[in-house]
What does this fold into?
Amino acid sequence: MRNKSLIIVLTLIVSALCLYFLSFSFVANSVQEKAEAYATDAQGNVDLAKKQTYLDSMWKEPVFMGMTYQEVKEKELGLGLDLRGGMHVVLEVSPVEIVRSMSGNSKDPNFLKALDRAKEMQRNSQERFTTLFAQAYREIEPEGRLSRIFSNTANRGKISYESTNEEVVDVIQAEVDDAIDRSFNILRTRIDRFGVTQPNIQRLKGTGRIQIELPGVDNPDRVRNLLQGMANLEFWEVWTPQEFNPYLMQVGQHLDELQRAGKLNLRGARAAATKAPVAADTATEDVLAQAAATDSAAIAATTPTDTAAEQADTAALDQQGGVLANLFTAMPGGIGANVRDTATINELFNRADVRSMLPPNMKFLWSVKPLEGDRGQAFVELYAIKKGRDGKAPLSGDVINDARQDFDQAGRPEISMTMNPTGARKWARLTGDNIGRQVAIVLDNYVYSAPVVQGEITGGNSSISGNFTIDEAQDLANILKAGKMPAPTRIVEEAIVGPSLGQEAINQGLISTLAGLLIVVIFMVAYYARGGFIADLALLFNVFFILGVLAQFGAALTLPGIAGIVLTLGMAVDANVLIFERMREEAAKGLNIRAVIDAGYGKAFSTIFDANVTTFIVGFILYFFGSGPVKGFAITLMIGIVTSFFTSVFISRLLVERTLKKAGKLSFSSSLADKMFRNVKFDVMKLRKPAYAFSIAVIAFGFIAMAIKGPNLGIDFTGGRSYVIELDKAVPASDIRSTLMDDFQQAGTEVKTFGASNRVKVITSWLADDESTEADTQVKTALEQGLQEYSSLNPQILSSAKVGATMADDIQNTALIAVLLALAGIFIYVMFRFRKWQFSLGGVVALLHDALMIISVFSILNLFGISYEMDQVFIAAVLTIIGFSINDTVVIFDRVREYMQDNPRATIRQIVNPALISTFSRTVITSLTLFLVVVILFLFGGEVLRGFSLAMIIGVLAGTYSSLFIATPIVVDTIKEDTKQPVATPQVAQKVR
It folds into this structure.
């Protein structure tokens, strides 16, 4: 074996890295177990608040190789929402409101018609909304000029009356993109403040959508309000420390008295604070604090106005030695607190007795971003905000026309800000009244910056400059622009998984994975003897590498991800089967064991490579176009393909050669292998026409069944809402449906048993076109009212999901694009590798046949009352079968090509049958192992994956059948043979006896 040392070193490095990254999961679980033990009483009851307090106390403490518990949690292999429970949301930033706002809320009838028309067109189009709007306006008013509508004060300097329609659309699109970026930044900050462990937020490329996953949340209503609330940008006057410290001292004395009297119960307070004042120079690390630096047009840096006085006031607090002294710490601009103590301080300041001791126009707000102190502790500054008579801010963000990153005369980054006339007047008054004092820039009740005003600012134009980078200046400009234009977000897709359903999914996933692994292990040893044992060791390496790589990339393990691992187990066997079958053929020629091994690995390499590349193409397309569970499956599938190639081709060979060196002999056959496939003989060309007829008949029947009853599409493709409901005992699904029909106003509703007999899934299209929160509440209320009839059975909603009509249309389109791209990619690759378009045609027709067979069988089963949904996971199964089937087909094509090269005078018809027969054992063994794995997945994988598993079962059978009787015969039928001299038919190597 060449490069043996390199393979050994690489294996050791990869193993060490996988072990290193998986170790974080073990450490994190260890801390969790200690927290649970700490919070468990003598009776075995767990105090969740006490457990969380323990975890909070460990958050910044070193627990592993000098890393804190927070850093360990960030690196562990997380669990997806379907395993852990939580909430998945896809938000869409409404471009309609942005366009309407840029027009100054124009009442032009053609403008309004164009908006409505663009909204209709967007349902069935992948084009950007602005493009559709321009197209609609051109249809309604062919000679109309958009500049007539958009050349207003708000767009001054960007759009003039002379601007062309194309220029106007470009400006609108730029504003839409900016609004999405601002919404993304605002949502990310809100989520960070929400306190969710390992949240995931990402922009969906090419759309105005933002995907958010929040593991472990238990208050969906709060999340919806948090995510859909408009950004609230305000400018406030600020109390100086000298002004508010006397009130804090009075509050501190009151709290100390309550504590001495035993009347103060602080749930989250520490016994003693970690006094770690933050050095003044650390303030410059925060971009938003830096924005309070010197202002070339009258805003100066955020610097203490009287440092000595502030330190004296802080020292006075420390001398109290009481509650507040233990919670507060010195900060560059006044006082602040450890992040973990903010909840306690909020609790104290929300007490009625404390509020009565503070001026009615004083409220406290925290800075948005913590500063790092000693020992990794994080601190946030506390600002005392001065409220007006009406409790409203003197100035709000809607007065800002524009804010952008710019450069001052010295070439340093700064932020230029312009306001409308009304805002300019209020800004001049606010800055004039607060010279030498701070003005806080507040977004969503968090202080982003608090610059000290140096003089009155008139004209509405000002700039904030300081010691920050271009990216930091752009961030602050986005914050300031956030209040400039309404860009409401709406939830277009939502899924909520309860923790109990998540735990059940974990159990089902583990059972199916272990069962699938066990059955593959047993079969390989039974069929290939010691060679099978080596393949099993390589298989275990494969699982280890998959989990290690997932952890290294920070990916979360999902239920479809577990399905991907189970599927990889079945597919990884294929490479070993190819190699071992080759070895058996070479051994039949009388070669010695060393030559057998070299020939087996050498001749199988290109076939394994081609098969893995074609499957990887499918996985990549799944990842690029999929979302949520489909993307999780694709990630695992792609990682599994790479690791299975490495373990099957390289690690297994290391093990084979080591075993041979140690034992002196090695067997790749067993009595079972000797008895199977002994005298396989068939003529595929004689069977091709009956096969064509059979396939056409099944597919035609399936489409007739679909026409009669309609396709059973999931809400991914139709839009609507679904709920999983559990009752104390089983109730017929038809009875529940009849009960709910009146509440859902006779809209399309489906109820079916989901997993356990006492659990049902309710799917309704009622109000599917209304994606508002109000509609969500209305549907859920109607469901709960309908379930009142079963109140004695304690009905509980375990999970829910929503897909808006617009989102459903997009999912349909992307699913179709994904399938077509997979076929196109495979067509191109096969033509590149086999140099004949006939091979590509045969392969793609067979793949299309497999996809149609799966759809047809699902439709036929639906016609006879066996109903499984066609959803995103179903499409993942179809694409996976495309990858599996082309894998199988490429192996046959590769043997046909080999026989053609070895027998240049033979016709294609003379070559096909020997090639099929020589690969028949490999085809059956690979299909059988994968079939057994997906059957295990169908039986034990849980209801969530049952439709996926059934599609895979049908696909494995259809893929094996099409590789033999569809793909290769089409190649034969389309290749025009030259007149050749008859030659002997290539002989199939006999199996080792």
Notes: Residues 268-320, 979-984, 988-993 have pLDDT under 50 and may be disordered. Residues 4-38 form the longest helix (35 residues). The two ends are 27 Å apart (CA to CA). Residues 266 and 334 are 24 Å apart (CA to CA).
